[in-house]
Amino acid sequence: MKIHSNSLEIIEIKKIPIRIHWSFILILGYVFYINFKAGNNSHQIIWSLIYVLSIFLCVTLHELGHALAAKQYGIHTKSITLYPIGGIASIEKIPEKPIQELIVALAGPIVNVIISAILWTWIIFSPIEYTLDDISIQIHTKNFLPNLATVNLTLAIFNLIPAFPMDGGRVFRSLLSLWIGRIQATYFAMLLGQILSLLFIFAGFIYNPFLIFIGIFIFFGAAQEYQAIKYGNLLGNLKVQDALITQFSLLLPYHTLLDVIQIILNTHEKEFIVINSEKQPIGIMTRDILIQSLANYPKQTPIQDLFQQNSIFFTPNTPLKEALHIIQTHSLAIVPVIYHGKIVGVITLENILETMMISEALKAQS
Ligand SMILES: [Zn+2]
């Protein structure tokens, strides 16, 4: 067992770590709470817990289905994390070939259909008499398996709702991209996903609050994936050197807030790289940090304890697509570009976006 900052790693299957997010405890707490409220004894609470954990085992197998299908196409899965609203397999990339995406998307729900089929076969042919009565009253040996079988079928059907980026949405996108190309297909999948997500949120207020979370997740997830694909396409094969800013000021830790004010007023620069005495980049200073600092410190204060530490850098050959991803995920205002141990330029989000707009305009022209 390994402890991560936001999750607990319980096992590794085929080199894929399976993790449980801390918020998962909420689910167990919720099970305790409803049992307690219903006045159930410890025996029944244990049954309820086993039932919930069994459902999450099935969710894990669902995610493993996606991961192992992706593996067939040489795509690695970094981890599978279980959250209270379900599992997420961090697949390194979604296959771009529609047929491959289709198979990876279907692999998850198929696992649940298979589990359900196995359970139903057992239930029908075994000598034990099972019942499918309401589990909200009590879960016990007679209704455990039929309910688990039903849950698996529900999971399969629910995940196949075409709300991109849910599995069904990916199925929809992959089939659509056979006809109209991947970017347009993603656009329509996003629209449908967002319309459905609003219905989820609406239904959540009436039936089950979990649907609200899922709806929000889908709404933003859909837009984010569409943006990523659109940008990825616009940035194409561009590299950091294509968007490089070669006129830039560097700051040293002993520079004061006043020095920064003067550079900002005299130039167009808003973000700076901070270097040490060996001329190696050690951090970032921005206009926002300056303004925050001025509220608490006098103008003569050196920036040494105020700037943001950063050790990330690019080379001129770093793909711009990758640079954009890193800048966004780490919320960096500026990143140094290093060649042969020397800072040859800087890159900012604004500059990447400008490069993208120019590239789009040039494409439209040709
Ligand atoms: Zn899935």
Overview of the molecule:
This protein is an alpha+beta fold and 366 residues long. Helix content is 55%, strand content 15%. The protein has eleven helices and eleven strands. The protein has helices at residues 25-37, 42-72, 98-125, 141-159, 167-180, 182-206, 210-235, 257-266, 287-296, 320-329, 349-365; strands at residues 2-3, 7-13, 16-21, 77-83, 86-91, 250-251, 271-275, 281-286, 308-309, 334-339, 342-348. The strands form three sheets. The chain has a five-stranded mixed β-sheet with strand order 1-2-3-4-5, with helices on one face. The protein has a four-stranded mixed β-sheet with strand order 6-7-8-9. Zinc ion binds at residues 62, 66, 108, 159, 167. Residues 62, 66, 108, 159, 167 line the site of zinc ion.
